[in-house]
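Researcher: I'd like a candidate sequence for this fold, 326 residues long. If you have to choose between options at a position, lean toward the conservative one.
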């Protein structure tokens, strides 16, 4: 008879780590994988968006013990920090514009001009239904990138941008989407209609059109009421019944929205809420303090939502400082 599967608690306390010594990346990765095989309450995440290696454990003490084990047994010391929040950038209004890239430095130069219209493209919108001749009368084709919910429409007529340069235009858009515009975060939920441009018989090339596309995307994006999106998580907080008021009040101060409550057996109650990830990235410590160590929680990604203007300004200001320091 097969033994029942052992269900381990979900590790909820995260810490981004990197080796103190250059060249120890492989050594660190190998050591962490060995530790995670030994301890099923540890989860390793390689975040492709923030480029961080994140260790998730059961508590801050648990994570400290992992660091000690790395140092003592595997001879790897690490730098640690709170994991970055994967914000996204989007727009709230329509805008249009053009950009001419012209560079001459002896011999053949570079020349490209790209004109676009930009529109918000809400999550869940069907590209087939949206990209019609009713909305884009001169549409030739469209391309949809699901990973960033980005739709771009080719409405160029008369060869004002030769067809062989359109892949370079798309590449310029995608480079800017992954680099971000206002704060260095990935762009999503945008539609771009390329409707006109200019080329030069000698100086136009793929590099010129890729550069022009990246610049025009940035300039028009900045005119289209840019805003930041933040990840919202659904959180289940299980606590003694007499701590319900304290936990609900605390979630409200974290911009949380309580969705409901459930009985969890005995004197325990589970509060279900949606709350910005940024507000609960270090929630374990606060919950332990409020409940005398009797509370627990699990959470999962729910959706992205617009960041309030005052918080958005702070995030953008910090991003500009980081960029200047680079």
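Model: Candidate sequence:
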């Amino acid at each position: 008879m097969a033994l029942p599967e052992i269900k381990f608690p979900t590790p909820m306390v995260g810490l981004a780590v990197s080796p103190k010594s250059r060249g120890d990346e492989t050594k660190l990765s190998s050591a962490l994988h060995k530790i995670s095989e030994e301890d099923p309450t540890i989860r390793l995440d390689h975040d492709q968006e923030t480029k961080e290696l994140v260790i998730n454990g059961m508590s801050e003490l648990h994570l400290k013990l992992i660091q000690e084990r790395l140092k003592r047994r595997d001879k790897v010391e690490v730098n640690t920090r709170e994991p970055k929040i994967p914000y996204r950038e989007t727009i709230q209004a329509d805008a249009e514009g053009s950009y001419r890239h012209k560079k001459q430095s002896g011999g053949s130069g570079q020349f490209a001009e790209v004109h676009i219209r930009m529109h918000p493209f809400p999550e869940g919108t069907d590209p087939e239904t949206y990209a019609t001749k009713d909305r884009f009368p001169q549409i030739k084709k469209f391309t949809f990138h699901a990973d960033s919910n980005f739709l771009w429409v080719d409405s160029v007529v008369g060869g004002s941008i030769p067809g062989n340069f359109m892949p370079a235009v798309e590449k310029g858009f995608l480079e800017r989407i992954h680099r971000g515009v206002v704060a260095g975060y990935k762009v999503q939920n945008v539609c771009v209609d390329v409707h006109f441009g200019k080329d030069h018989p000698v100086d136009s090339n793929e590099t010129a059109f890729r550069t022009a596309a990246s610049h025009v995307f940035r300039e028009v994006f900045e005119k289209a009421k840019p805003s930041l999106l933040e990840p919202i998580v659904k959180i289940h907080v299980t606590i003694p019944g007499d701590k319900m008021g304290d936990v609900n009040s605390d979630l409200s101060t974290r911009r949380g929205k309580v969705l409901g409550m459930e009985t969890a057996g005995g004197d325990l109650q589970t509060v279900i809420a949606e709350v910005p990830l940024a507000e609960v990235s270090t929630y374990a410590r606060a919950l332990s303090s409020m409940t005398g160590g009797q509370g627990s929680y699990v959470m999962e990604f729910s959706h992205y939502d617009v960041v309030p203007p005052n918080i958005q300004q702070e995030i953008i200001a910090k991003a500009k400082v980081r960029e200047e320091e680079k």
